Amino acid sequence: MNSLECLKVAMAEVEAYYQKRGIFKGKFGFGVKPALIVIDMAYGWTDDAYAGGSARLDGAIQAIQELLALARGKRLPIIYTTSPFEDKPQFKSAADYSPNFRKWDRRACEIDERVERRADEYLVIKEHASAFAGTALVGHLIEQRVDTLLITGCSTSACVRATATDAKVLHLKPVIIREAVEDRSAIAHEWTLFDIQARFADVVTLAEAKTYLSQIEVQG
C-alpha cells in the first residue's frame, strides 16, 4: 500500500468518526456575488526550475483558465496574489528559512502567462500565507459587495488554506475549486482538502463552480 492509499484509509476512518458523531456536515453554499481569487500562480511556484516550483500545478492552471473565462464574461471581480520581490526582505516567512526556496529573481514573482492577469484586475502583494493578512483585500471585496470567494491557486496546504480560513472569519462564503488548487505534495493536497471541507470551506468540483458561474447575471 503506497502513501496515498494509506492516506485514503485514514481519511475514511476520520470520516466514519465524523458521521457517527454527526459533526462537520454543514455547507456554506454559494452566495449572490462571487469573486475569483488566483493565489500565487507566479513562476516561483509554477516553474519547477525554481526550488519552490512544481509542474504539479499544470492541471490547476487549465482549470483556472476556464474559470477566468467565465468570471470575465460575467464581469466579476478577479484577484491575483503574489509575493513581493525584494533583495533583502524585511519580513521572513517560513519559506525564507528553507535555504533554496527564496533563491528567486524578479520573474519568480510574476504571474504565469498561462493565467495572465489583466491590467484592471486587482493584485495583492502579500507577505503572509493569507491573502487577507496585512493587505487591503477585505476592503476591496466589501466595496464590490462580494459575499462568496471562489478560491484557486497554490499551495493547498498553505496559502489556499490560510486564505479560506480568513475568508470564513470575515463572514464570506469560502469555496475551493478542487481541480483549480494544487500542492507540491499530493498527500498534503488531499488531506488539506478533506480537513478544510469539514470545518472551514466548501470544496467543490470544477463542474459545480462552472454551473454556479453560468447562473450569475452579468455585472454592470
Structural class of the helices, strands and pairings? alpha/beta
CATH fold-level name: Rossmann fold
Global geometry: globular
- Give average pLDDT, whole number: 90
Instruction: Count helical runs.
Output: 7
**Topology as a string of helices (H) and strands (E):** HEHHEEHEHEHEH
**Going across the major beta sheet, what is the strand order?**
3-2-1-4-5-6
Question: What are its keywords?
Answer:
220 residues, alpha/beta, Rossmann fold, 6-stranded parallel β-sheet, 7 helices, 38% helix, 16% strand, globular
Brief characterization of the structure:
By secondary structure, the chain is an alpha/beta fold. The chain has seven helices and six strands; from the N terminus they run H-E-H-H-E-E-H-E-H-E-H-E-H.
Description:
The protein is α/β, with parallel strands linked by helices and 220 residues long. The chain has a single domain (3-15, 29-215), classed as Rossmann fold (3-Layer(aba) Sandwich). The chain contains 7 helices and 6 strands; from the N terminus they run H-E-H-H-E-E-H-E-H-E-H-E-H. Strands 3-2-1-4-5-6 form a 6-stranded parallel sheet, with helices on both faces. Helix 1 (3-21) runs parallel beside helix 6. The longest helix has 19 residues, at 3-21. It is globular, with a radius of gyration of 17 Å.
Topology of helices and strands:
Layout: H1 3-21, E1 34-39, H2 43-46, H3 58-73, E2 78-82, E3 122-125, H4 137-143, E4 148-154, H5 156-169, E5 173-182, H6 186-199, E6 202-204, H7 206-215
Parallel strand pairs: 1-2, 1-4, 2-3, 4-5, 5-6
Helix pairs in contact: 1-6, 3-7, 5-6
